[in-house]
Amino acid sequence: MCGIVGYVGAREAAPLIIDGLQRLEYRGYDSAGIAVIHNAQIHLRRDVGKLNNLRAKLEQAPLQGNIGVGHTRWATHGIPAEHNAHPHLSMDGRFVIVHNGIVENFRELREELQAEGVQFRSETDSEVIAHLVAAHAANGAHGDLAEAVRRAAARLKGAHAIVALSTDQPDRLVAVRIGNAGGVAVGIGDGEYFVASDIPAILDYTRRVVFLDDRQMALISNDGYEVTDLSRKPVPVSVHTIPWDPIGAARGEYAHFMQKEIFEQGRSLTDTLRGRVMFEQAEICLPELNLDAATARRLRRIAIVACGTSYFSGLVGKFYFEKLARVQVDVDYGSEFRYRDPIIDETTAVLAITQSGETVDTLAALEEARRKRATIWSIVNAVGSQAMRIADGALTMNAGPEIGVASTKAFTASVVDQYLLALYLAQLRGTLAPNDIRQHIADLARLPALVGQALETDGAVRQLAEVLASYKNFLFLGRGINYPIALEGALKLKEISYLHAEGYPAGEMKHGPIALVDETMPVVAIALKDALYDKMISQIEQVKARRGIVVALATEGDTAIAQKADHVIYLPETPPLLAPVVAVIPLQLLAYHVAVHRGADVDQPRNLAKSVTVE
Ligand code: AGP
Hints:
Blueprint: E1 3-8, H1 13-24, E2 31-38, E3 41-48, H2 51-60, E4 67-73, E5 88-89, E6 95-101, H3 106-115, H4 127-138, H5 145-154, E7 160-166, E8 172-178, E9 185-188, E10 193-196, E11 208-211, E12 216-221, E13 224-229, E14 240-241, H6 257-263, H7 265-273, E15 277-278, E16 283-284, H8 293-298, E17 301-306, H9 308-324, E18 328-333, H10 334-337, E19 348-354, H11 360-371, E20 375-380, H12 386-389, E21 393-396, H13 409-429, H14 434-455, H15 458-468, E22 473-478, H16 483-497, E23 500-505, E24 522-526, H17 533-544, E25 549-555, E26 567-571, H18 579-597
Parallel strand pairs: 17-18, 17-19, 19-20, 20-21, 22-23, 22-24, 24-25, 25-26
Antiparallel strand pairs: 1-4, 1-10, 2-3, 2-4, 5-6, 6-7, 7-8, 8-12, 9-10, 9-11, 11-14, 12-13, 15-16
Helix pairs in contact: 4-5, 7-13, 7-14, 9-13, 9-16, 14-18, 15-18, 16-18
The structure holds 2-deoxy-2-amino glucitol-6-phosphate (AGP).
């Protein structure tokens, strides 16, 4: 899940590329590098570790030149080290490439190239691409960079995003996208052009963007850009204007992007609802789904596919679709779905939930859906992403750029998008009376204020985090629609504080996990006033009877629970279907404050990346 930024224009390339990479550092960050062409020579700077190390190197030895490419790496083959950092050069130093993805046949290519006398300088799979481009440029492509890249790409197995430059044609960048190894976006500036794996890298410079589809390439120079397929045939492209503003992608006065994104949720959910809820008519309006009533009534099943936090969002959505639209729902991990030969057909809608829109496991599940002729829907945050472009109908989360690796505002936005979609289906299928729809809409109208009240628990949660930060293992318990929130709360804590945490359906405790409980085990219990409250209280009592430490999320006014739990975080009275959105807020804050207390790298937790574009 590497970050790629390229530039060609009248300005100095290096500062623009480095600033762009800084905005992509969340995508993968164990080393970074940049190559710039100046006076018909490729100049390279690379370093291991954070981007600031590379920035320091450039301050010592600046690079001049108006065309270049940079890369932040999330290592797959070859340890994080300077010699394994991208960009990678051909042996003669005339070609340079950066790469996102995995060259699945790199060993045989490496042996073939070594047999022809190529000496490798790295242990990476990506380096083979630089040497293949050079070889094709010399044999058959007659020095034409685009042709050499095209021929080299044809030898690669796997999914790839590649950007290449050459001193033979020092005025152009060539970019290629094959499969789902992360996006390739061409930014159209004023007499200057950019290429990036993710659009936050270029939002400071332009919001006009063309996205490459699978098996497409772009030839970019000072004079403009051309997009073709892999046989070099020009293809029609649409220029998207990205609504995100650069300020929105900046941290502002917050200590971390994650903190900013947690606190943005009142506003971001307002944006998620905007234009989709006709409050007066009590109607939901989702034209972007391209769905008519007849098709909606023919729907027999929804198969939700997603990964990580987005998968937990899908577990909440299952309650909405089954309860409101009376459609059977299965929820699968993207990485599992296509291997179980799922029973789906034209009466199935496969719904992908993905913040980045580029998660390769989720995209692969959609390919399986397409193969079995299911309708494809997606709920995405990244405008123009692959999951958005290949869907028959796509709902955007409208949460704005989510930079923190730990997903927060995109999670709540995707839950609300599913609520809206379930109500829309109920409208089309006639499974809800208009008055019921009106009540759900009235509930949704209260959500931003309820989230604002939940955010006011920040002080209490921060104090609680200081108490809990020294524990090593946690259990998160929930029931019904709040069970997925127990899973999400556990994931949030483990992925940014590196503490072990497990989410469990509370009813399962007596079937094993309660053996774990003792005075060293904090148990976070979501015990809001709902139909399962009494059962949650009984679980809390079982934990207390074994000297466990109980942290309860409770409904304001519930004084009884304070007699049973060690710590209580009170939340406003919330309609049961919206409880997941409100209950997740203090759990996001808990994970955040524990991680900060432990000095963890909140926005760029170790071993993780924001967009997982490798299998
Ligand atoms: C969430 O906090 C994690 N960063 C991760 O589980 C993430 O949700 C998962 O990789 C899916 O990403 P997507 O929504 O972009 O597909």
